[in-house]
Amino acid sequence: MDICFSQNEARVLGCLLEKEVTTPDQYPLTLNALTTACNQKSNRDPVMSLDEATVLDTVEALKAKRIIQEVTAGFGSRVAKYQHRFCNTEFSTLQFTKPEKAALCVMLLRGPQSPGEIRTRTNRLCDLADVKEAEAVLNGLAEHSKGPYVVKLPKESGKRDFRYMHLFSGEVDLEALAEQAAVPVVGSSSPTSERVAKLEEEVATMKQEIAELKELLESLTS
Description:
The chain has two domains: 7-92, Arc Repressor Mutant, subunit A; 98-185, Winged helix-like DNA-binding domain superfamily/Winged helix DNA-binding domain (Arc Repressor Mutant, subunit A, Orthogonal Bundle). It is mainly alpha-helical. The protein contains eight helices and five strands. Helix 1 packs across helix 2, helix 1 (7-22) packs across helix 3 (52-64) and helix 5 (115-121) crosses helix 6. The longest helix is centred in the last third of the chain and has 31 residues, at 191-221. Helices cover 49% and strands 8% of the residues. The chain has helices spanning 7-22, 31-38, 52-64, 98-110, 115-121, 131-142, 174-181, 191-221; strands at residues 29-30, 68-72, 80-84, 150-152, 164-166. Strand 2 and strand 3 (80-84) form a beta hairpin. The strands form two sheets. A three-stranded antiparallel sheet has the order 1-3-2.
């Protein structure tokens, strides 16, 4: 695949894909809004602390790759806003279904994901009935006629599910990961800790939804 995003580029693109769906009234995003989105503490892994200059440099790099375009906020406005042209636009040859686009968005924002994680973390981007449907979406991206766009990773020691990783940041060394996965993990997570982690993730998602609703309310009343 010709595309190879850096970590910052993947984060910026993932944010644009996400906000296009979750906060359409605020999309395209200003540089300030895009920086805030990149540095969110929920639904991001790793959590970053990028300044506007770094985000702007990343935007310029993506503009050079024709992945992002700049648009004006309105007639007579000097405020620049940014929107992606990565997929599902007249400018891109990449065309994904809504669940495929949502799954790729989450992987760009969070790295490798299991089907269960994809099903939970795409709840604001699309509707997936169950884990089997999420797995079917991921396998479809892995076996896509114009892809592959994702790869199935070796199962980690102590983990129940396989994870998938997008291939827009280069090839994945599956042999090295398989060797690493074969090493036993001391103190692997228990079912109880997994349930706690899931609850924490759901709480974080709810907090982010509340924060975005507050932003939208402030924009409407300003």
